[in-house]
Amino acid sequence: MPEGDLAAALEFCTGCSGRCVEAVLKEYAEKSSPLTFELVRCKLTLFYDYWQTNEILEALLPEGMIVPTTFETVGHIAHLNLREEHLPYKKLIAKVVLDKNKPKIQTVANKIDSIHNEYRTMQLEVLAGNHSLVTTLAENGLRFHVDLAIVYWNSRLGTERQRLLSGFTRNDVVCDVFAGVGPLAISAAKIVKRVFANDLNPHAVEYLERNSVLNKLEKKIKVFKMDGRRFIMAMFASDKAHSITQVVMNLPNDAAEFLDAFRGIYKDRPKDGEFTYPMIHVYGFSKAEDPEFDFHERIRIALLEVAVNVDMRRVRLVAPGKWMLCASFILPKSVAFANTAVDT
Question: For the whole model, what pTM was predicted?
Answer without folding.
Answer: 0.83
